Amino acid sequence: MDRVSQLQDLIDKTVQDFATALLEIQNVAPPVAVDPSIPVTFVAPEQVQTQANAANVLTQQFVTSMKTTAQQLDVLIDNLPGINLTELEQLARMRALDEESCAADEELERAVAEANRLMAEVRTSFERSTAA
């Protein structure tokens, strides 16, 4: 797998992990009173503390995971080809690659033309041999 695909996969995984973490934290977070004059009464204070602790643990796990993922992203980005080149060097490299691509395209076209010529010869020979 090439580096750009690895980068994309890691970014996709990061987005999925972020969404999962938000959902999990939302599920375990204790209820909060929207209006201080209307307290939350359907949850015991012990439950609120337990849920808050669980949310904190999940948050810490998520932060650790995100930190690791960010480091992996940095490594992948730093290892991209040409990342340490100046803009002019990158442009020169792109021109060279474009020239190589054009040369390869011309070579391919010549090979296809030769293959078509040979195929026509084979057909002609086959038709001659079956007609006789």
Quick summary of this structure?
The protein is mainly α and 132 residues long. The chain has two domains: 1-83; 85-132. The protein has helices at 3-28, 45-78, 87-131.
Task: Summarize this structure as a short list of keywords or feature phrases.
3 helices, about 130 residues, about 0% strand, mainly alpha, 2 domains
Order of helices and strands: HHH
Helix percent band? over 70%
Shape: elongated
Total helix count? 3
Please indicate the percent range of residues in DSSP E strands (runs of 2 or more): under 5%
The chain-level structural class is mainly alpha
Multimer state = single chain
Mean pLDDT: 88
Number of domains: 2
What's the count of strands? Answer: 0
The main sheet comes to: none
Q: In whole angstroms, how far apart are the ends? A: 54 Å
Parts with pLDDT < 50 across at least 5 consecutive residues? none
Radius of gyration: 31 Å
GO molecular function: transcription coregulator activity
InterPro entries: Med7/Med21-like (IPR037212), Mediator_Med21 (IPR021384)
Subcellular location: Nucleus
Family: Belongs to the Mediator complex subunit 21 family.
Characterise the protein shown here.
With 132 residues, the protein is mainly α. It has two domains: 1-83; 85-132. The chain has helices at residues 3-28, 45-78, 87-131.
